[in-house]
TrEMBL record:
The keyword Signal appears for this protein: yes
Molecular function GO terms recorded: hydrolase activity
Organism in which the protein naturally occurs: Polaribacter cellanae
Keywords from the named record: Hydrolase, Signal
Signal peptide annotation: 1-22
Protein name as catalogued: Arylsulfatase
A Pfam family per the record: Sulfatase
SUPFAM superfamilies tied to this protein: Alkaline phosphatase-like (SSF53649)
Family that this chain belongs to: Belongs to the sulfatase family.
Classification via PROSITE patterns: PROKAR_LIPOPROTEIN, SULFATASE_1, SULFATASE_2
């Protein structure tokens, strides 16, 4: 009898213990959310679906990003909102399609594209208690359109929710070729002010057109103006010699600035938008990474990007905050090889397929224009897996708002869907419909891909001599990606009702007004 009672007592203690552990587990999971996880978005430039080892790359190895894919969620149907950089960045930060603000690739002296009254991802997270930073390429405009780069440069990131910014004002192939920290260009000397002009050249100043012998490698006519670091750029520039950047220094400077921000905010929830310049042109990887791929400068720039990613993840681990940090890794659009500079990206490609199994690339309405690598990584919270969910970068806004328990209003992020579960669980469904922006608008509905015809203008089959098919046409296009991943067989004529429904859906999305 005593043994029987002892057995019952022991079993009761076991149940209590298990229940207590279950409660502790639930409490810990809730505590993670209550603590508000740090959030890092790694935003690579022009990285194609097939440009990572974990996505089938040949001729280049990306072990640091592959670690994220192996231990996180690898997405196979994730999309940037647009096939070019400025529109994608606008959509990610506002949760709105870029056409709502007529967003397009900006010149280097463009005013701030995002209205300072607009709701943004950075503002939302700041309201939720986050310290926020953007480091790297900006290309969303700065100032009011009459910017004096020698004085305070605003409005900019600080006016749309970022506490700290360290930027390339536009991108590497455009002037001004200086770093801007918060509201100021760094290292400028008063007796040597910098001047920028996108309409005419400065008398007596060498350009890529007048002095091609000064160039490290040739450029097309558009990229043949101001020469900095042996590379000609878009736009004209004079002065500011002490402030001019050296392209090969990018990986160390940007990584250091990011890690300084992380170190400073290790005790507080933070959001870091780490916006790479790599692998955008001009490609000038540091000597540390030259020759590390078989594909020349473009492949070496991928290696450099991978190293930078690894250094920031290493910092999280050193500070013991990696398990309370949600990482999203992705790209702003599809790949491009020759985008204005003759750096042998085409000649040294070998068997590598930057777009993976898809057609098109940067600028294109075909699938490779917006279908990009995407990985979510959160040690101890996200279970490793592969997701086929359809997801857009416009969805980050509302999804992250839900993760940090912030209630959005009807006026903000009007195109953003709550895919919180999709970000954290590989076995969760994604969108039913997804809009893609390029020269025209396209719509995904399940495996069907519809490309709206261009109206009132002639469609060009190829993108400005870049050997990328534009995907634009003067007639409707419909593809069944389950049978035709390469978008080779247009089935629009045999599916007129479906075409009409998908066009009507695009029209209804376009008709939604910003409130």
């Amino acid at each position: 009898m005593k043994k029987y009672l002892l057995l019952i007592f022991s079993f009761s203690l076991l149940l209590i213990s298990c229940n207590q552990k279950s409660k502790e587990k639930t409490s810990n999971e809730e505590n993670i959310i209550q603590q508000k996880p740090n959030i890092i978005i790694f935003y690579v430039d022009d990285l194609g679906y097939g440009d990572l080892s974990s996505y089938g790359a040949v001729g280049v190895s990306t072990p640091n990003v592959d670690k994220l894919a192996k231990n996180g969620i690898k997405y196979t149907d994730a999309h940037s909102s647009a096939a070019t950089c400025t529109p994608s960045r606008y959509s990610l930060l506002t949760g709105q399609y870029a056409f709502r603000n007529n967003a397009h690739i900006l010149p280097g002296d463009a005013p701030l594209l995002i209205d300072t009254k607009e709701a943004t991802l950075s503002k939302m997270l700041k309201k939720a208690g986050y310290n926020t930073a953007v480091v790297g390429k900006w290309h969303l405009g700065l100032g009011n359109g009459e910017t004096n780069w020698n004085e305070e440069i605003k409005p900019g990131p600080l006016e749309i929710g970022f506490d700290y910014s360290f930027l390339l004002p536009a991108t590497g192939d455009r002037v001004p070729t200086i770093f801007v920290e918060n509201h100021r260009a760094i290292n400028l000397e008063k007796n040597d002010p910098i001047q920028i002009n996108y309409k005419k050249s400065f008398d007596g100043v060498p350009t890529g057109r007048t002095n091609p012998e000064l160039l490290r490698y040739p450029a097309d006519n558009q990229h043949s103006e101001a020469i900095v670091n042996g590379i000609s750029r878009i736009g004209n520039q004079i002065g500011g010699k002490s402030a001019l950047w050296t392209d090969e220094d990018f990986p160390y400077i940007f990584t250091e600035k990011a890690n300084q921000f992380i170190e400073k905010n290790k005790e507080n929830p933070f959001f870091l938008f780490f916006s790479f310049h790599d692998i955008h042109v001009p490609r000038l990887p540091n000597k540390q990474f030259q020759g590390k791929s078989t594909m020349g400068l473009r492949g070496d720039a991928i290696v450099q990007m991978d190293w930078m990613t690894g250094q920031i993840i290493k910092k999280l681990e050193e500070l013991n905050i990696d398990k309370n940090t949600l990482v999203i890794f992705t790209s702003d659009n599809g790949p491009v090889l020759n985008d204005g500079y003759s750096d042998k990206a085409e000649e040294l490609l070998g068997n590598h397929k930057p777009s993976g199994p898809f057609r098109g690339g940067k600028y294109s309405a075909f699938e490779a224009g917006t279908r990009v690598p995407m990985i979510t990584y959160w040690p101890g919270t996200i279970k490793p897996g592969e997701s086929k969910a359809l997801i857009s970068q416009t969805d980050y806004y509302t999804s992250l708002a839900n993760i940090v328990n912030y209630k959005t209003t009807a006026q903000e992020a009007i195109d953003s869907k709550n895919l919180e579960k999709t970000l954290l669980n590989a076995n969760t469904e994604g969108r039913e419909l997804l809009l893609e922006e390029s020269f025209t608008l396209s719509l995904r509905k399940g495996d069907y891909k519809y490309i709206a015809p261009l109206k009132n203008r002639k469609a060009r089959k190829w993108v400005y001599g870049k050997k990328i098919e534009s995907g634009a046409a003067n007639e409707p296009q419909l593809y069944d990606l389950s049978k035709d991943m390469g978008e080779e067989v247009n089935i629009a004529k045999d599916n007129k009702k479906l075409v009409e429904k998908m066009q009507a859906k695009i029209d209804s999305i376009v008709a939604i007004s910003k409130k």
